[in-house]
Amino acid sequence: QKEVEQDPGPLSVPEGAIVSLNCTYSNSAFQYFMWYRQYSRKGPELLMYTYSSGNKEDGRFTAQVDKSSKYISLFIRDSQPSDSATYLCALSSGGSYIPTFGRGTSLIVHP
Amino acid sequence: DTGVSQDPRHKITKRGQNVTFRCDPISEHNRLYWYRQTLGQGPEFLTYFQNEAQLEKSRLLSDRFSAERPKGSFSTLEIQRTEQGDSAMYLCASSPSADTQYFGPGTRLTVL
Question: Rounded CA gap, B108 and B11, in Å?
Answer without folding.
Answer: 6
